Amino acid sequence: MDHLGYEQVAVARHTREVGTSREGNRPNVYYAWLKDFMEAGKERLARDTVRDASRAEVDSLKRENERLKQLVAELSLSVHLLKKQGYPVWSRTETPDEYQ
């Protein structure tokens, strides 16, 4: 950590000492993350700020996400209504054959 500034070292130490116990992270996880972070360096940080998807791709993904949310809502309502009417509805752990 020699090339880091005093404030960065202080933040790293605080994270290690307080963050690992408060957040439930084990110190070995912290040190593995720190090693990866230090090896990646500024190049990785710069790359993370660059957008990989175009605006059109993001919009397309948002539309697809909304469509899938709507589908889940409709299917959930259908299952709820079937259960309410007394139709047998099986869980993921059961197959239709096992349910009967």
Automatic annotation (TrEMBL):
Residues 51-85 form a coiled coil. Keywords: Coiled coil. This is Transposase. It comes from marine sediment metagenome. The lineage of its organism: unclassified sequences, metagenomes, ecological metagenomes.
